[in-house]
Each structure stands twice: as structure tokens, then as C-alpha cells.
Amino acid sequence: MHIRTIIRIVGILVALFSVTMLAPALVAYIYRDGAGLDFFSAFVICLCLGLALWFPNRTHNKELRSKEGFLIVVLFWTVLGSVGAIPFILSAELDMTVAAAFFESFSGLTTTGATVISGLDTLPKAILFYRQMLQWLGGMGIIVLAVAILPILGIGGMQLFRAEIPGPVKDNKVAPRIAETAKTLWYIYLVLTICCALLLWLAGMNMFDAICHSFSTIAIGGFSNYDASVGHFNSPTINLIIVIFLLIAGVNFSLHFAAFASRGLKLSVYRFDPEVKVFIGIQVVLTLICMSALLTHQVYSSPWQALDQSLFQSVSIATTAGFSTTGFAEWPLFLPILLMIASFIGGCAGSTGGGIKVVRIMLLNLQGMRELKRLIHPRAVYRIKLGNKALADKVVEAVWGFFAAYALVFVICMLALLATGMEELTAFTAVVATLNNLGPGLGDVAANFGTTSDVAKWIMILAMLFGRLEIFTLLVLFTPAFWRS
């Protein structure tokens, strides 16, 4: 294990991250909100920490193996989430405990969107911008951005890329070289962000809100500048724009690359992808169920209002964004529970969404159907196909292993929260919200997570990391075999 090489790389990445602190400092200067010194101080602290990690190890330059790539990914998210809490700790405006500051930082970076802050409407613009920026940086993964420059530093990037990109199949690169892959993905990510911001601005948001909400929309994060979230704007047009971009961000980004790889837009790439079909189908079914139930219970008198709210909340929760336009916790109880269960599915593999991922659910379903057929025809040989491609049994086995690990982590986290004295519904939905990187829960965490104990916050931070790193990336570090040379 090349420990000093790992420390060197983490130091470089922390130093690079420190530069992002200057963006909210600039916002503070523009709006004269008094928070600039906090972010400049955080920049200096992060830069010094990064240099302290890099300088003693600057000559150590070894090629990474896969296991070291996993370790760097986990260390980076842990360290970055920790240093990301510095501005929250320094802010006199927020007056947060250490646990609350870490919770907010990790929630932003992992694109969970759960918050411990109330009174967002009156916070300094710099703090609001910083929260949204954390989500935007975490959306595709800062490490995917970083591997674009790692070859310049003498470090191969494929190990980091495979550890970071979500989904069951990670060996297919969309470009011949990993650096080109990372750059291309981020170009697409940036273009989508700009388009979303412009449309939100044209729909009635001011430019600051449009930029901030585009950050959290493309990242499928869910942070907002207002306690009422997107409901603050009370605009069906804004709701529809956010829904469209959540669906786009919930699709595998390698499909976006393929769609724009040649001249013109190849929509057939999306039309013939089985995962996209199921993903869109899930959103349609959830919307129809919610709309029918809301009209039946006369929650809304107008069918158009019911459609607007049903579409927005279904897509927002099912893609694990967690935006809200209404107190959906006050809907007939089975609807919030249904939507939170849908968040276990999440977005497509290779998207910025959380959850188990649509393709894994598809494979679990196909495997279940195969076992039923084997009961009827024990000697028959059935191959599992995704589209027209037959999958190796090791892929299906990996999905079952992932599902088992996901369920185990969920149960352990929920039991741990119950042990802190948390009420049952609150504990269940709190784990759903954090492990699936969703954001809002029910019960005592319907509005925010500020009332939870510090111990509960640390447990939920761990759940966020498990969800963001797709269980195995973090879980593998707890196996003795990983640490053997």
C-alpha cells in the first residue's frame, strides 16, 4: 500500500478544493453580507492543510492499484466533507455545533439535501451559495473532475474513476482515455447547469436563485435557498423546468455523451436504452398514482394543480432530489411512504441520482423471473439479457451482493438511530433520506434534521457516505483482506 502517495494525492485534492472557497467569498463581497472573512479564513485553512499533506510527500509518485483507488476515494470524501464543514463552524450567523456543521457539509457534498438549518430565507447569500456549490461539486464527483488532471501529476486515473462512478458496470469508458472521459462528462454537466440556470431565470427566478437551484437540480441534490424550497416561487413553469432537468440528470451520463458524440442529437440512444424506458415509466406511474389519490381525497380541487404537484413531488422524490413544493408529508400517508420507497430505486446507473439504481432493480427482477421459470423447468438454461445483451452470471451475483449489503447497512443504521431514542417512523425515513441521498424524511425530520441528537447526526453522516459511495467502496475498507499487501 503506497500510503505516502495516497497522502500526497489527498493533499493535492484538498488544496484544489480550497480554491472553491473563494467563490462564496466573492459572493459575500458582491452582496456585502459580511460572510466573506469566514470563507477566506476557510480557504487559508484548507490550503495550508492541503500543502501540509502534499509537501512532505511530494516526491512519492507510485502507480495506483485498484485497492488504493478505493482508499483515496473514501479518504477524499471523508476529508473533503470534514474541511467543507469549516465555513459552517466559523460562521457566527449559523452558530452550529460541530456535528451539525459536519452534517450540513456531508449532506451537501453527497447531494443528500438534508439540512439542519432553519431560516434559510434570511441567511447571507455567501452561505446559501456555498451550500448549493457543495452539491454541484459532489453531483458528478469531484474525483471524476480531478482524474482529468491526475495524468499530469503522474497518477493513473482509471482506478479512481472505477471507484467513484455509480452503477454495476464500470469498465466501459465513453472515451479512449480516462482523462478525456472525465473532461467530457464535466463538459456535459456544465452545459446542462448553464441551460437550467438560464431557463429558471427566464421563468421568473432572479439570477442568484436560478444559478443556485440549477446547481442542486443537475446534482439531484435538493438544497434550496428558502425554507419552503421550490414552493417559495409558486410557479408551475419553474416546477416543470426542474422536473425536466431532474429527469435529464437522472439518466446515465454516458448516454448523454453518446447522444452528442456525433453531429446532431441522436435521440435513438435514449429511445432504445432499456434502463431509460423503465426509469421514465416509473415516474409516469408514480405521478398517475399520486394524482389519482390527491383528487380522490380532494387535497386539490383542480386537476391541473393536482397534476403539477404530483409530477413535481414524484420526480423529485423518486430521483432522490428531495425538492418540495408543498408539505407532501401532509398528503394521505400512503403517498409519502410510496414515494420514499420509490427513492430506493433512484436514478439510472451513471447518473447523479442516489438509491440502488434502476438497472440493478431491473436485474433483480429478471433474476427473480428466472428462478420462477427454473421451478417449472428445472433443467432448462435461462440467460439474463438486458436489452439484447446477455449478462454474465458474475454481474447478477454482484447485484445480489450489493442488494444484500444495502439492506444490511439500512437495518444497522435504523437500529442505531432507534437506540438514540428516535421515534420509529422518524428513524425509518431518516435512514431512507440519508442512505438513498434523498433529503427530506417524515415525522420529526419532515422539515429539517436540526432537532436530532448529535449522535444521530453522526450515524446519518455515515449513512450518507455509504449511499454516495455505493456501499462496497466504503465497506471493502472494513475487510481484513483489503489491508493485506
TrEMBL record:
Its main location: membrane. It comes from the Bacteria. It holds the Pfam family TrkH. It is found in: Cell inner membrane. Keywords: Cell inner membrane, Cell membrane, Ion transport, Membrane, Potassium, Potassium transport, Transmembrane, Transmembrane helix, Transport. The chain crosses the membrane at residues 7-31, 37-57, 69-90, 137-161, 186-203, 238-258, 278-300, 333-359, 398-419, 458-483. InterPro entries: Cat_transpt, TrkH. It is a multi-pass membrane protein. Low-affinity potassium transport system. Interacts with Trk system potassium uptake protein TrkA. Belongs to the TrkH potassium transport family. This is Trk system potassium uptake protein. It comes from Oceanisphaera marina. The lineage of its organism: Bacteria, Pseudomonadati, Pseudomonadota, Gammaproteobacteria, Aeromonadales.
